[in-house]
Automatic annotation (TrEMBL):
<protein>
    <submittedName>
        <fullName>CPBP family intramembrane metalloprotease</fullName>
    </submittedName>
</protein>
<feature type="transmembrane region" description="Helical">
    <location>
        <begin position="42"/>
        <end position="60"/>
    </location>
</feature>
<dbReference type="GO" id="GO:0080120">
    <property type="term" value="P:CAAX-box protein maturation"/>
</dbReference>
<dbReference type="GO" id="GO:0006508">
    <property type="term" value="P:proteolysis"/>
</dbReference>
<dbReference type="Pfam" id="PF02517">
    <property type="entry name" value="Rce1-like"/>
</dbReference>
<dbReference type="InterPro" id="IPR003675">
    <property type="entry name" value="Rce1/LyrA-like_dom"/>
</dbReference>
<keyword id="KW-0378">Hydrolase</keyword>
<dbReference type="GO" id="GO:0008237">
    <property type="term" value="F:metallopeptidase activity"/>
</dbReference>
<keyword id="KW-0472">Membrane</keyword>
<keyword id="KW-0482">Metalloprotease</keyword>
<feature type="transmembrane region" description="Helical">
    <location>
        <begin position="284"/>
        <end position="305"/>
    </location>
</feature>
<feature type="transmembrane region" description="Helical">
    <location>
        <begin position="191"/>
        <end position="209"/>
    </location>
</feature>
<feature type="transmembrane region" description="Helical">
    <location>
        <begin position="115"/>
        <end position="139"/>
    </location>
</feature>
<feature type="domain" description="CAAX prenyl protease 2/Lysostaphin resistance protein A-like">
    <location>
        <begin position="190"/>
        <end position="291"/>
    </location>
</feature>
<keyword id="KW-0812">Transmembrane</keyword>
<keyword id="KW-1133">Transmembrane helix</keyword>
<keyword id="KW-0645">Protease</keyword>
Length: 306
């Protein structure tokens, strides 16, 4: 079962990427869709991914990484991992279907500026509240140690597990270069954007994709297949969500092109976040990295009444 699942988790993303590559390479408008909000994906996604992975690999020793992997195994021991993964995938489907549906319903009665708030609400509900209640907290009765994994991810006492701040700073610095020249709004708008980005996007998604999905897939199929699969799900979800995304323009040319644009952007970002998670098992690093990068990218487009 483990070997079969490992091959499936490797092959599905690889086959999809290979099938999409010819059409994307022949598409003259590809680069224009990869660049959105005036941000250059070379600096906001690809270079940060390379730098973050290389630095994290260089800083963390194999012994430290293996020790943390063993602790994850202990935290998830006796959990019904297959059942939990199925529940998580069900919640992900509910999210990608529910957000556009609720937005459409609200859009019939409210201005467009109001109904887009449906997406953060549905995201928090399906990617955070229900997974925590059904997958993490529900294990208390049957396992007796359901809080071991959240404690491992959030109570970070070892100094070396904060060494990931260096890759975070380098990645954020590269994003700053990527958005250079883009006019930023007032400090109040930036602060508001950061609050929404961290609370409504970063925290629920990083806990869901990395803390829950990737961690369980690692126990079932291994480290890199889990990173690949979680990153692929991350990209697919954003492609299916159509205009409800934050980094690149996925709103044209049909689902295949949206997926083709999402894989080299959201997928690559997912690999960076997944690798950092597998090295440090520190959810705060992921929140800081993703939240700050995302704030820098989307803040120039935010307009609020101050």
């Amino acid at each position: 079962m483990t070997t079969t699942l490992r091959w499936v988790l490797w092959l599905v993303p690889a086959v999809c990427a290979a099938a999409l590559a010819p059409a994307l390479l022949a598409d003259p408008a590809l680069l224009s869709r990869l660049s959105w909000h005036g941000a250059d994906p070379l600096w906001t996604v690809w270079l940060p991914a390379v730098a973050g992975i290389v630095l994290s690999w260089a800083i963390v020793t194999r012994r430290q990484r293996d020790e943390m992997a063993d602790r994850v195994g202990e935290a998830l021991a006796n959990h019904p991992l297959g059942t939990e993964v199925r529940w998580l995938l069900f919640f992900l489907v509910c999210f990608v279907a529910g957000a556009p549906a609720l937005s459409h319903l609200l859009g019939a009665a409210f201005p467009p500026e109001a109904y887009v708030t449906a997406v953060p609400v549905v995201r928090v509900f399906f990617l955070f509240v229900l997974p925590v209640l059904v997958v993490d907290r529900a294990g208390i009765n049957s396992v007796g140690a359901a809080m071991a994994m959240p404690a491992l991810a959030m109570r970070v006492g070892e100094p070396w597990r904060w060494g990931g701040l260096l890759p975070v700073v380098v990645c954020v610095g590269l994003v700053v270069v990527g958005v250079r020249g883009t006019p930023m709004p007032s400090p109040g708008t930036v602060a508001f954007t950061m609050l929404v980005t961290f609370v409504a996007i970063t925290v629920p998604e990083e806990i869901f994709y990395r803390g829950m999905v990737q961690s369980r897939l690692e126990r079932l199929a291994g480290r890199w297949p889990a990173i690949a699969a979680a990153s692929f799900l991350f990209a697919v979800a954003h492609a299916v969500m159509d205009p409800y995304n934050e980094i690149v323009d996925l709103s044209s040319d049909g689902p295949l092109h949206r997926l083709g644009v999402a894989i080299p952007t959201y997928g690559v970002l997912g690999v960076l976040l997944g690798y950092v998670w597998s090295q440090y098992r520190n959810i705060w690093l992921l929140v800081l990295l993703r939240g700050t990068m995302l704030t820098l990218i989307i803040a120039p487009t935010v307009r609020i009444v101050e």
